[in-house]
Amino acid sequence: MRRTTTLSTCLASLLLIGSWAAVGTGSASAAAAPEAAPTSASKAPASNALIDAMRRDFGLTKAGAEARLAAEKKATATEPKAERAAGAAYGGSWFDADSGKLTVAVKDGASAATLAAVRETGASVRTVKYSARQLDAAKARIDKLTAPDGVSNWYVDAESSSVVVGVVGAQRADNDVRAFLAKARAGGSVAVTVEETAAAPETFAAGTVGGDPFYTGNVRCSIGFSVHGGFVTAGHCGGAGQGVSGWDRSYIGNIQGSSFPENDYAWVNVGSGWWTVPVVLGWGTVSDQLVRGSNEAPVGASICRSGSTTHWHCGNVLAKNETVNYSQGAVRQMTKTSVCAEPGDSGGSFISGDQAQGVTSGGWGNCSTGGETWYQPINEILNRYGLTLHTA
């Protein structure tokens, strides 16, 4: 089914970005591991694929990239412990790339014992005006409003202890935008701040083009992550019951569940000789990445994306639990990144180290001039449909 290539490249091509192919009838575990990817026993923080992409996009040395990944892994493990230690005073957290540590916001007035308990986890502490519970309640109130096109997104920013509303710069003076901001600020004690964005977010689906896609009708999208029995992707790529075909238009399976807007996720069952492997494709530019879990990276951590249009790109996690206002309707509980994307990348993999993070939803900009991209967190998708991530 697929053009002639080596076994290791073929196997790596099965998972991501519509690159599924029948290379045999045995299970993925019986085949050779992807070329240049570390084994499960390896102590390497990530494959050469991710290290190379971080060196390119962050301007790091190999040692610098490995050190950052190690620090982020430690911060990821620290975050839930620090949140428990802070208790009701918890105000959010983020990874500080300069210090290599997790910073935890704690509400003013917290006891000395609480502050000490948070510091004992290894996190730095910053006192803030509001707790995460207060900030989340303020955002939930804004979620009930209907946003005009000039409002791009809104989210809780732990660092500024406020709810931030993104407004397209050229439409900031629009009457509907001003009315929305007035309603967002009315009746609440939590600060609501405004940040200008360059453009309104759009989903990253595309019409039929060549490459290694998967298709629903004439829409091309990218595969996110293998799960047992299929793969997950973006909901805007197709509705439940739709047939899905691979890069060569041969039948893969059907969309078993899909949600968009409000959410942006879907999952597809796999059959007809197609099969799954726990790999994120490097597209021949970089080596491929094994997937070993789905521990959630903190705000500030590095993250990379693979998609069928623009391949590998890296950036930082900018915000979580963000509401994104697409023209089709709002999507909630999204994570914002500084990674670029373009049409056809929708549904593709966001990965931090060897940990799956989510599937590409949409954003603004492109990979020539830059931009921002949101993803739907992977663990929410797995929990929603009762799926199990296929890991190495």
Automatic annotation (TrEMBL):
It comes from the Bacteria. Transmembrane segments: none annotated. One of its GO terms (biological process) is proteolysis. Keywords: Disulfide bond, Hydrolase, Protease, Serine protease, Signal, Zymogen. Residues 130-185 form the Peptidase S1A alpha-lytic prodomain domain. The active site is at residues 236, 264, 346. One of its GO terms (cellular component) is extracellular region. Disulfide bonds join 221-237, 304-314, 340-367. Residues 1-21 form the signal peptide. The keyword Protease applies. InterPro entries: Pept_S1_alpha_lytic, Pept_S1A_streptogrisin, Peptidase_S1_PA, Peptidase_S1_PA_chymotrypsin, Streptogrisin_prodomain. One of its GO terms (molecular function) is serine-type endopeptidase activity. Belongs to the peptidase S1 family. This is Serine protease. It comes from Streptomyces dioscori.
